[in-house]
Design goal:
mainly beta, 15 strands, Trefoil (Acidic Fibroblast Growth Factor, subunit A)
């Protein structure tokens, strides 16, 4: 029997920004216009050298070629004791709503620590026993989320509990779980609750 309990009614989709220091939570703070906030995103099937890597920089208007811009992420919520952990994947939401199963990937990191969207582990439908990496979002209470709410000053940690950082490579920046600049994340909840992911085929 698994110690992890899947919480289907707490799952949500969200946009994500990175910032290097704590920011105020005043209503006038807008991550889309404030220079303190750096969008977190990725592309799928773009054909460029960064396809699938989790980027942390200026958001492109459109991905290259026939690629898909992933700017919203699905957070599958699990509970272990009093703690929540998250299976994070590209969200089927907005412009990507009807792209199943094209975005069937899961957030993980490689041997160099770079975060990316990788093939889903075997048997992703076994929610009682998670097969994907489970990330921590320190400071987030998934029981208190509604569409449109923003949660500031969160710490994203890998499954081992190490906080995620931002690292630059020439003119591009990425998320990495062992090197780079420490920082925090802000989430904007776009949908909650959402169906278990991946969305079953009709």
């Amino acid at each position: 029997m698994s110690y992890y309990k899947f919480q289907p009614y707490l799952c949500f989709n969200a946009r994500c920004w990175w910032h290097t220091a704590q920011v105020g939570e005043a209503a006038q703070v807008d991550p889309d216009t404030s220079k303190a906030f750096i969008p977190v995103w990725s592309t799928v099937d773009s054909g460029d050298r960064d396809d699938g890597w989790v980027r942390c920089g200026r958001l492109p208007a459109y991905p290259e070629g026939d690629g898909v811009l992933c700017e919203r992420f699905w957070f599958g919520v699990y509970r272990i004791g009093e703690q929540y952990v998250y299976d994070i994947r590209p969200a089927y939401s907005g412009r990507t709503l009807d792209l199943w199963p094209r975005l069937d990937r899961v957030l993980d990191s490689n041997v160099d620590g770079y975060l990316g969207l990788y093939a889903v582990p075997q048997d992703p439908y076994r929610w009682e026993q998670p097969t994907a990496p489970l990330w921590q979002v320190d400071g987030l209470d998934p029981e208190r989320l509604t569409p449109g709410v923003r949660r500031f000053n969160l710490t994203l940690c890998n499954p081992s509990g190490k906080s995620v950082r931002r690292t630059e490579d020439f003119t591009r920046a990425y998320l990495n779980d062992w090197k780079g600049v420490r920082g925090l994340v802000t989430l904007e909840i776009t949908e909650v609750p959402v169906p278990p992911h991946p969305r079953p085929q009709a």
